[in-house]
Amino acid sequence: MRPSSPSYIADFDSATGMLRAASNYLHGQDYPGLGKGHLMGHLVQAANKLPQAAREEVYAVGGVTEGHAPDKLDQIDAEKVAEWITARYPQRRYQAVMVGSASGALTHLSAAFDIPWLPQTFFIPVRHLTGDNDDPKGAMEFGRRYAPKLLEANPDLQLHHMHDANQDRLMVEYMDYFRVKRLTLGRAYERFLEANLEPGGTIIVTECRSSWPTTRIGERHFFQHGALGGATEEEFLHGSERVEEYLERYDSPVRRWDSPEPDGRSPEAEWGFEAALRDDILRFAAQHGYQVKRLIYDEPDSLSPMVADFYRDWYRQRGMKSNRVLVESFIMLEPYWALRTGSVPFWMKFNMNPSVDTIESYLDSRDPFDEINLMLFNNGVEGVGFPQIDRWRQVLDRARKQGQFIGVSEELHPRDFGSLGRYYIETKQKIPARYPLPGPLPLARLTDYMERHGERYDVELLAA
User: Cβ neighbours of residue 436 under 8 Å, at least 6 residues apart?
Assistant: First the structure.
């Protein structure tokens, strides 16, 4: 049985969810209930029976129960987090290991090549019961007060304190988002690589170039107002008509956010890559005779077209049809059932307009699919840049034969919290096709594919 995560690590986060999905697959298992099992699925299904306001409050309170006490941040141990991460994977020899930025598309590369992914970034939710979700300066001062304990106890971490009252409105009512990035591999990651990476094997550094305007608080401490999604950097900093309408609709006392003045740009808190880790990986690889490759991409979902096309090509080589696509959303993803159902996986980073644009652009530029199956993450907020359900139906209408939602209650979205358990059940029920799990591909297949087709994508695979 794999160990539980440290109590101060968020369960419902990109890195945690993608780690669980990838590691479950390498154990030959699927990913029910976001990796929390069937009981969690039943609990969130029950929440759908509540009135809208009650559902939103349950969602927010459920988030704060994960929050860590701000005066106990010195108890956080980055090495214990790394030990938990590495313990989730089977302890055996691998041809390669990925280390770095998160992307749901990476879980499908992990499955195809039977290789682990070790995240650079993890999320510490910190309780802030007296905060105001529309007061980013107040959040910044909260971080200035409490973050030093965390950073003093963990000299190899860099803090990116993120405040997003658009997409995370319900959550930042009661907590602050402390996202931390590893600057070095550290003992646990190094031990895992030494014990499990084949001699002469490859470390693939996954580097997302996404950045955001930030305010520097300390040497290893940045404050980020806003995040990738429906609202732009400019709207977080200076407002807009869309922001005014949104804040009025949510009965906020303000009509634009009083944003701290940025003094630079930093790797985006959730997705961006901090280059100091690459330098440490190169040092470690040189000492132990490992190869290093850099998988570089601009946005977390920039990998998605490449991975989808790679799978489609792979299925054709296996003599399978490649006419079914499974569109995943944030931490609602299923590398196991994508392969078992013969579905081409296409991962979207969230449920906002840029994600609709991404899948529409992909479908516009490819041979049509007979089947389109679409998941949607529910965050409880109709924020700036939120697409109504009709626009998602138009995506499904592009299927030649059948387009259908997976785990989505159309009338409740984005407050359909039961979807967090239902997506898994409906993936199996609504997609009846079954194929045997394939054996792992040699890493040379990825290198060869990128050499032949890499110019199509906003992705680079480089030898370091």
Answer: none
C-alpha to C-alpha distance for 350 and 335, rounded to whole angstroms: 17
Residue with tokens 């299925």: 315
The domain total for the chain is 2
* Domain endpoint, select from 266, 297, 328: 297
- Could you read off the pLDDT of 90-114 as tens digits, one per residue? 999 999 999 999 999 999 999 999 9
Same domain, 353 and 381: yes
The whole domain housing 344 covers: 303-430
Q: Are residues 224 and 371 in the same domain?
A: no
Instruction: Report pLDDT digits (tens) over 137-147.
Output: 999 999 999 99
Residue 293 shares a structural domain with residue 351: no
Q: Report the C-alpha gap between 140 and 176 in whole angstroms.
A: 9
**In a domain? residue 440:** no
Flag whether 163 is in a domain. yes
Residue 327 CA: distances (Å) to CA of 194, 332, 424, 427, 440: 36, 10, 13, 11, 23
Angstrom distance (rounded) from CA 112 to CA 441: 6
As a whole number, the mean pLDDT across the chain is 94
Tokens 């009025």 locate to 248
Span 19-52, pLDDT tens digits? 999 999 999 999 998 876 555 555 555 555 555 5
Q: Is residue 439 part of a domain?
A: no
Query: Measured between alpha carbons, how far is 423 from 263 in angstroms, rounded to an integer?
Result: 42
What is the residue type of 302? S
Q: Are residues 41 and 170 in the same domain?
A: yes
Strands, sheet with 459-463, edge to edge from the N-terminal-most edge strand: 117-119, 94-100, 197-208, 291-297, 459-463
Q: Looking at the predicted structure, is the pLDDT value of residue 59 above 80?
A: no
Give the separation between CA 362 and CA 13, rounded to whole angstroms.
26
Over residues 326-367, the pLDDT tens digits come to 999 999 999 999 999 999 999 999 999 999 999 999 999 999
Spatial CB neighbours of 221, under 8 Å, sequence gap ≥ 6 = 143, 147, 151, 158, 159, 161
Q: Is the bond leading into 414 cis (omega within 30 degrees of zero)?
A: yes
CA distance 381 to 63: 14
Whether 460 maps to a domain, the answer reads no
